[in-house]
Amino acid sequence: MAYSHRMSQSPVFPSLQPSDPSAPPAATAAVAAQPGSAPADVDTLAGTERAVVIVGAGPAGLMAAEAAVVQGATVHVFDGMPSVGRKFLLAGIGGLNLTHAEPLPAFTARYAERAGTLAAWLQTLGPQQVRDWANSLGIDTFVGSSMRVFPKDLKAAPLLRHWLQRLRAQGVHFHMRHRWQGWDDDGACLFDTPQGARRCRPAATVLALGGGSWPKLGSDGAWWPALQALGADLAPLRPSNCGFDVSWSEHLRQRNAGTPLKNVALTVGGWRQVGEMVLTVGGVEGSLVYAASALLRNAIEQDGQAHCTLDLLPGRSQDWVQAELAHPRGPRSLATHLKTRLKLDGAKAALIWEQVPKAAQTDPVQLAAFIKALPLTLLAPRPLAEAISTAGGVRFEGLDAHLMLRQRPGVFVAGEMLDWEAPTGGYLLTACFSTGQVAGQGAAAWAQAGRDVRS
Ligand SMILES: Cc1cc2nc3c(=O)[nH]c(=O)nc-3n(C[C@H](O)[C@H](O)[C@H](O)COP(=O)(O)OP(=O)(O)OC[C@H]3O[C@@H](n4cnc5c(N)ncnc54)[C@H](O)[C@@H]3O)c2cc1C
Q1: Are residues 199 and 272 in the same domain?
Q2: What separation in Å is there between the alpha carbon of 184 and the centre of ligand 1?
Q3: 429 lines ligand 1 (CB under 6 A)
Q4: Same domain for 281 and 308?
Q5: CA-based max dimension of the chain
Q6: Fewer CB within 10 Å, N or C, the chain?
Q7: Parent domain of 63
Q8: Ligand 1 pocket check for 369: Cβ under 6 Å
Q9: Candidates 45, 53, 77, 87: which one to mutate for ligand 1, based on the most atoms within 8 Å of Cβ?
Q10: What tens digit of pLDDT does each residue of 215-247 get?
């Protein structure tokens, strides 16, 4: 078989070979061991001893399953939920932004301090490969006006359906309602199922359990204690692409919550971007806020609050705004003056009323300066459960180049449970696919190496 030929001639991952003298003894034991004797009341899952087990059937886990099965591995996928890919399906409600069509260097830079780590993997499975892969499932994609890439029908369900059909045809086994609980003393994976406790001791495991946002969809970060007990290198889970609390007046809450602010520019330090955000009962959210969320969150962590400014007329110069405001107002109210001269009304006018000191509201020079840089103080990020994605997780420093945990050889990690973050725009799914592929290939090679040793 081509795969085993490649492994014996030129091992893909020599450092993962159980026979490698540099591998810790535990690694050899983990791969070569047969299932231990299970407690009498725990059902042992048959047929998984030589398999790659994937825990978590989101985009990262499913891509790991695909990568492992095409390498010849027997693959079993487990998930705590009754069906796969619930967050992926939710992403489809927003059109399923699969990836982004900007050039790869710019694309990679979106992963900020983790760009260097992800770069090589994104070369192998990056934006173009994501589009090719979707295409291989019969799903055409298109590039939207902001260079975001979507399936033509803007839906996740057909893509997921075709993907599952292909995985099943390739022989991948699915086990739903199996909630991973960690490992028992002899290293077996433990699951809680409606039929009671189950265990399995596979040749290799991929954990693709997601982050901690939208826990009702299955990923709740409950994996944390098991990995912490292992001594894995973990960064705290924090909200990313999230909203923020602002102390609005009762008046603004009641009148303007839920109102979008279209075509505004947000500035945070040296960062500036034009876009759209939404005023909420307790603060702000929306794509423009999400884009700045890492900066804002980090500032709050450091200083207790974050200061930013809003340009309510990003297409106009301050001089122009000032000249318009300087037109005689006569008996008209400020609201009417703002509306007729600057076309500022609704939530934008409410913000001016709320944030600009009364004395400055009657001075065209000061008011123009506020309209071009309206100060906003953000008090706290919204809770992780409400965020689009999660920052923090398993640090790359605790993993090898194939995303295998140094503390537990044979266990690989993929997707959002890894410590990287990126803005919305398709970067999240692309990194999940990419790391899923790396982990799946690593797990398949590890399982294969164990088979080679046994045979
Ligand atoms: C509203 C919303 C819209 C989004 N839109 C986009 C978008 O358009 N483009 C984009 O790039 N990204 C988007 N994202 C982000 C994207 O969906 C995630 O980054 C991605 O789903 C993460 O993939 P994952 O496989 O790592 O984790 P998940 O998709 O969270 O999957 C993890 C799986 O693990 C399972 N699991 C967790 N714990 C256990 C356990 N103990 N035992 C067994 N199973 C367990 C869960 O049930 C789940 O099925 C969106 C997110 C949200 C919330």
Answers
A1: no
A2: 26
A3: yes
A4: yes
A5: 93
A6: C
A7: 2-239+386-454
A8: no
A9: 87
A10: 999 999 999 999 999 999 999 999 999 999 999
Q: Using the mean position of ligand 1's atoms as its centre, give its distance from the Cα of residue 247 in Å.
A: 31
**Ligand 1 lined by 179 (C-beta under 6 Å):** yes
Q: 225 and 138, same structural domain?
A: yes
Task: Compute, in angstroms, the gap from residue 219 CA to the centroid of ligand 1.
Answer: 7
DSSP letters for 131-163:
HHHHHHTT--EEE-TTSEEEETT--SHHHHHHH
Does residue 88 have its Cβ closer than 6 Å to ligand 1?
yes
59 CA → ligand 1 middle, Å: 7
Angle at 421 between CA 419 and CA 426, to 5 degrees: 130
CA-CA-CA-CA torsion sign (378, 148, 67, 402): negative
d(CA 435, CA 305): 34
For ligand 1, the distance from its centroid to the CA atom of residue 210, given in whole angstroms, is 5
Residue 278: is it exposed, middle or buried by C-beta count within 10 angstroms (0-12/13-18/19+)? buried
> Which atom of ligand 1 is least distant from the CA of 427?
11
Q: What is the CA radius of gyration of the chain?
A: 26
Rounded (5°) CA angle 216-219-222: 105
309: which 2 tokens? 């400014």
Contact 322, 365 (CB under 8 A): yes
CATH code for the domain in which residue 23 is found: 3.50.50.60
Asked which of 24-38, 333-347, 394-408, 430-444 is least confident by mean pLDDT, the reply is 24-38
